[in-house]
């Protein structure tokens, strides 16, 4: 378990992190989301001792983090830290050896990962000759070569094409299901929603929501109703507590209170139009995010 407790970091007059408390658990994917400049990178850097905190602590398995613990962590920084002119395999082997692995073990691990991520045929190429997506994969391998207990990734999906995105998602799922703790930041909320059991939403340095995503969604009082219909739009004027979020030909999206009488709503819709389909759901992560960061 990775735990942030009361973590505070100021840069001059900017409070990048303001008494942040949250955790990321083993065997789960935790998505770290927030607007630009919210403090995600600063928080992730603090796990690796790259920022000096003004207050609070970051703990791993209940204890403060030192050099020994960090040897068992993997990190994909925002400023991708690869040597552009070095060959892929040499570079990864070098990084694995820096983590304390012997030469033979390093090479075995690097070759396995290159094979798994479809980069074996690029092993002897210079990093700067690889596409953005492939450089990203090499960067991911660099974070994985020491078989880390904790993986921290700063926007691992940025700039990936749909195929690369799927393979990165599958890999992170696999890493987490092997019992590791995975914390990653992303602006792709739909992806985070599909992938993560847990989320942390940060805004202006403050954690505004954190925990199990399904519980966070269920805990919000609003619900969303989507009605597909034939003919004119439904007449909802006799109902109260309903906000029309979107109305286009054949489709109406409503925001309603959690205790809305659905039978009454459906009956009312069917009085005025031909109802084709109906869905009722808690807010999605993008909706939760909008509600949390503007509140
Ligand atoms: N070294 C630094 N010196 C001064 N200010 C900094 C430094 N690092 C971060 N900041 C400021 O701290 C705040 C948080 O930045 P941070 O990079 O952690 O946000 P972020 O959530 O990762 O943003 P993004 O989504 O845009 O990557 C911002 O206002 C940023 O300008």
UniProtKB/TrEMBL annotation:
InterPro entries from the UniProt entry: AAA+_ATPase, ABC_transporter-like_ATP-bd, ABC_transporter-like_CS, DrrA1/2-like_C, P-loop_NTPase
Signal peptide: none
Pfam families referenced in this protein's UniProt entry, alphabetically: ABC_tran, DrrA1-3_C
Domain ABC transporter: 2-229
SMART domains: AAA (SM00382)
Gene3D superfamilies: P-loop containing nucleotide triphosphate hydrolases
Protein name: ATP-binding cassette domain-containing protein
GO MF term (any one): ATP hydrolysis activity
Family per record: Belongs to the ABC transporter superfamily.
Keywords: ATP-binding, Nucleotide-binding, Transport
PANTHER family membership: ABC TRANSPORTER, ATP-BINDING PROTEIN (PTHR43335)
